[in-house]
Amino acid sequence: NANNGIKDEL
Amino acid sequence: MNIFRLAGDMTHLLSIIVLLLKIYATKSCSGISLKTQELYALVFLARYLDLFTDFISVYNTIMKVVFIASSLAIVWCMRLHPLVKRSYDKELDTFRHYFLIGGTFVLALVLNEKFTLQEILWAFSIYLEAVAILPQLVLLQRSGNVDNLTGQYVFFLGAYRAFYILNWIYRYLTEPRFTRWIACVSGIVQTGIYADFFYYYFISWKNNSKLKLPA
User: Which residues pair with B180 in a beta bridge?
Assistant: First the structure.
């Protein structure tokens, strides 16, 4: 999910 | 991926296509701020550093490459293309955008998710994108009349971040621990900066008149 710092958005 | 984010990305892509179309079709970049284009190139370069380290999806990778390549191509075109660069409104495009770069970088040093180079540059790219349109809006106010394609370019650019706000609301409601405060607050500020442009754009559309921004 988006909390582990992975930026899955552009 | 949700419909709001897809709509946002497609609107963003559309804004770039409209700008490329304007420059290619008219062989002119009058009314376009080179400083804003340089800021966008910086935004994408600072944000997509993870292009080669974190693979998210084919879509994500392709869009990052497209955004970086198109923003650099536009800057190259406005600076070096023999025909296009002559139509650049150098004397109107005088916003001191170095202050925007410095200010947003300092803010990113203070406000970030983690004090690492990649996170600081990511936060910098988020803050810089929020203010990157300012030189363009100032130039439009100075140049008085706005040609249709330039007006549409700015409109789509503003609309894309508005879709992203809907995306963040949707993700906040549907994903248990989704928080992206930096992007969300900055995105709201960014969309707010377009508010007056949207207003005049709507008026000109309603009256079917030429878009004019008050000086």
Answer: none
Handedness of CA B152, B191, B129, B3 (dihedral sign): negative
% chain B with pLDDT above 70: 100
Q: How far is A9 from chain B (nearest CA, A)?
A: 8
Chain A residue whose CA is closest to B45: A10
DSSP code of B114? Answer: S
pLDDT digits (tens, 9 = 90+) for B131-156: 999 999 999 999 888 899 999 999 99
Buried b (16+ CB within 10 A) or exposed e, B183-200: bbebbeebbebbeebeeb
Report yes or no: A1 and B178 within 8 Å, Cβ to Cβ.
yes
ipTM of the complex in this document: 0.87
| Contact yes or no for B114 and A5 at CB 8 A | yes
φ, ψ of residue B69 in degrees (nearest 5): -65, -45
Chain A residue with minimal CA distance to B47?
A10
Q: Measured between beta carbons, which residues in chain A are less than 8 angstroms from residue B47?
A: 7
DSSP per-residue codes, B130-188 = HHTTHHHHHHHHHH-B--HHHHHHHHHHHHHHHHHHHHHHHHHHHSTT---HHHHHHHH
Closest CA to B31 of B125, B142, B115: B142
Tell me if A1 and B176 make a contact (CB, 8 A cut-off). Answer: yes
With beta carbons under 8 A apart, name residues in chain B contacting A1. Answer: 175-178
Helix, strand and coil in chain B, % to nearest 5: 75, 0, 25
